[in-house]
Write a structure and sequence with these properties.
By secondary structure, the protein is mainly α. The chain contains 2 helices and no strands. The relative contact order is 0.16.
């Protein structure tokens, strides 16, 4: 019954992805390229999860 109110994690993941990209941008501007690459890699992995969830929903 409560699964009806349980939403998809898609919106949460999209917000987190946007936040990671913003943090990566700031790190790059501050000259911290190592942090930039770490955050970008995390954002990319999250984007892949988002795309997989969207593809799963389309089928």
């Amino acid at each position: 019954m409560f699964s009806l109110f349980k939403g998809s994690p898609l919106k949460k993941w999209q917000k987190e992805h946007e936040s990671l990209l913003t943090q990566a941008f700031q790190a790059q501007r501050n000259g911290n390229i190592r942090l930039y690459s770490t955050l970008t890699a995390e954002a990319e992995a999250l984007r892949e999860k988002i795309e997989a969830l969207k593809a799963e929903g389309d089928s």
